[in-house]
Design brief:
The protein is α+β, with helices and mostly antiparallel strands. The chain is built from five helices and nine strands. The chain has a single domain, classed as Beta Barrel (Hypothetical Protein Pfu-838710-001). A hairpin with a 2-residue loop joins strand 6 and strand 7.
Length: 178
């Protein structure tokens, strides 16, 4: 799968929320995400522009856990890249497996995220500890689908929401100085 994603640093969420409502975006939920990133024993993901993480999402009395791998970015204006994600049962066992294979935890990124749907796009408003506040718009495509049209659509949505600057291709880890 290809994830087409564009992220922008924003000053505040209030005006964005109002415009999302005007565009009939559907607020799905608010959640806290705790993403522990790992580096490989045989190459430096910071150099290769890859990411491997365990995401924990506490939800009521439950904990959802996902493993995600993101490949290197494949264009110059967005964070479009191959992405693979799978749900797992136990974060601690998964981390133990990773570490037993030589993967080293780098940092945990904690963010509070509001999630909206607008047609086939997912829009998130993120408050990221040690990094700031951001808005992301993304869309998933099958391998081989043309992603450039989706990038243009995403930038059009940003424009409709009044965001024309602050676009950021760095990861939250990079923005935190890691």
């Amino acid at each position: 799968m290809i994830e087409v994603e564009v992220k922008a640093r924003v000053k505040e969420f209030g005006p964005i929320r109002k415009k999302l409502k005007q565009l009939n975006a559907l607020k799905v939920k608010t959640e806290r995400q705790e993403d522990t990133y790992f580096n490989a024993p045989y190459r430096d993901f910071a150099v290769t522009d890859e990411a491997l993480r365990i995401r924990k999402i506490p939800e009521n009395n439950d904990l959802k856990v996902f493993i995600t791998y993101k490949g290197a970015k494949i264009d110059k204006s967005s964070k479009t890249r191959k992405e693979f994600e799978v749900g797992v049962e136990d974060a601690e066992i998964t981390q133990n497996i990773f570490e037993s294979l030589g993967f080293k935890p780098v940092e945990t990124v904690i963010k509070d995220r509001e999630i909206y749907y607008l047609q086939e796009f997912v829009i998130t408003l993120d408050t990221v500890k040690k990094a700031g506040i951001f808005m992301e718009i993304e869309k998933d495509l099958d391998d081989g689908e043309d992603f450039e049209q989706s990038i243009h659509q995403i930038f059009d949505i940003f424009k409709k929401l009044g965001i024309t600057e602050g676009f950021e291709r760095k990861s939250y880890l990079e923005l935190m100085g890691i």
